[in-house]
Structures are given as structure tokens and as C-alpha cells.
Amino acid sequence: MLNDPFFSSPRFDEEETVDQAWGKFVKPIEDAIQLFVPTKTIFASQSNKRTKRYSGLIRRAMTKKRRIWRAYRTKRTTENKSLYERQSLLVKKLIYDHQKQVEKSVIDKVNMGTATPPSIRPTSDDLLNRSARRLSARVCVFTLR
Fold first, then answer.
1. Residues 63, 55: Cα–Cα separation, whole Å
2. I want to staple 65 with a disulfide (CB 3.0 to 4.6 A). Which of 26, 31, 32, 87 is the partner?
3. According to the model, what pLDDT value does residue 40 have?
4. Which pLDDT value is given to residue 78?
């Protein structure tokens, strides 16, 4: 155990450099990590991100944008650049409009947040009155002294 290079102090008088001493110190740790720490390979296809689904119009616009970008990369002209920028703005607008439409459809759903069929569902006046009663029961006024 006394002759183990890991436990011995660095011998700078024997012309051992700091890097060599550090290598002697780190080598057993790296070997232990290599032996005992399991590794797992993660592939890109296993990510938790869902791919977005867009309409055919948006997909075609994105394909055209990609094609224009490749043309600009091979031939860097101001015309190609302006075409790409115009197509990029169009794609952004189409995606924004699509997201806005999806959110609006979620908001406008008749059965949002309820499990009762539409024929039994209370009217909006009943819901407002019930909400007002709940709020009036919970409202408390605190005064500062």
C-alpha cells in the first residue's frame, strides 16, 4: 500500500511535473468511473418532444423556404436573400395564424371542461349565479389596525 502511486505524495525533486502528478491522481478515479458507472446511449428519436402537425399549406411553404435557403447558400445573391426573407415571413405568419386558430377552436368548444352532455348542461345565467354565490361566500374583508 505504501508503494501505491495514488497514495504517495508527488516527487517534484525527481523532476515529476504537476501534470504528471495530476495524471497519477486522476487515473484511478477515471478507471473506477469507467468500471462502475453505467452508461446509456440516448438517441434523438427518443426525445419527449412531439412533432408539430401543420396543414399541407404550411408544410409546402416550409418546404419552399428550405429550398430557397439552399439556393441562397449555394448562390449568395441579394435576390436569393430577399426571396428567403419574404418566404420566412410568410411561414411565420402562417404558423402564427394556425396557432391562433387552434387556440380559438379550443376556447370555442362547447364542452370545454365539462363532462355533462349539452342537453343537461346549465345555461350561462345559472353558471354566473352559482359563481357569484361561491365568490360571495369566500370574500372576506380584513382591516389593518
1. 12
2. 87
3. 81
4. 93
